[in-house]
Amino acid sequence: MDCLFCKIIAGEIPSTKVFEDEKILAFRDIAPQAPVHILVIPKEHIGGVDELNEDNSAVLSHIFSKIAEIAKQEGLSNGYRVVSNVGEHGCQSVRHLHFHILGGKQLGGDMV
Ligand code: DGP
């Protein structure tokens, strides 16, 4: 499968890792849109939120518990935003489920 984030998981493409365990990887976004911009992904290939179902969604609780830990570790005590773009209208550019953690400054109030 020709998936950029699967290649990052496999170590074929380098990344700046923030956290890794057997289920998930967190690394810094290559084009940060905030002082802190981290991507959190499952190691299992899931295309996006639109491919989640009862059989593969258990990893979400793990991802979100680690997002909270990573945010603390990154000093985001004043808050942050978690975003997952889905499909064409959502401007998803990489078809591997990922959650953006954005923070480190006052973010805008508009979501679109
Ligand atoms: P999205 O547009 O929501 O699918 O987000 C994809 C993000 O992935 C985007 O913010 C840029 C980031 N990205 C793309 N290619 C690479 C890469 O090779 N390395 C890293 N670290 N991030 C990447």
Structure description:
There is one protein chain. By secondary structure, the protein is α+β, with helices and mostly antiparallel strands. It is 20% helix and 22% strand. A five-stranded antiparallel β-sheet has the order 1-2-3-5-4, with helices on one face. The protein is globular, with a radius of gyration of 14 Å. The protein starts with a helix and ends in a 9-residue tail after the last strand. Residues 4, 13, 15, 27-31, 39, 85, 91-94 line the site of 2'-deoxyguanosine-5'-monophosphate.
Q: Brief description of this entry?
A:
The protein has 112 residues and is α+β, with helices and mostly antiparallel strands. The protein is built from two helices and five strands, in the order H-E-E-E-H-E-E. A five-stranded antiparallel sheet has the order 1-2-3-5-4, covered by helices on one side.
How would you sum up the major sheet? 5 strands, antiparallel
Low-confidence stretches: none
What distance separates the N and C termini? 31 Å
Measured as a percent range, the helix fraction is 10-25%
SS content category = alpha+beta
The value of Rg in angstroms is 14 Å
Number of strand segments: 5
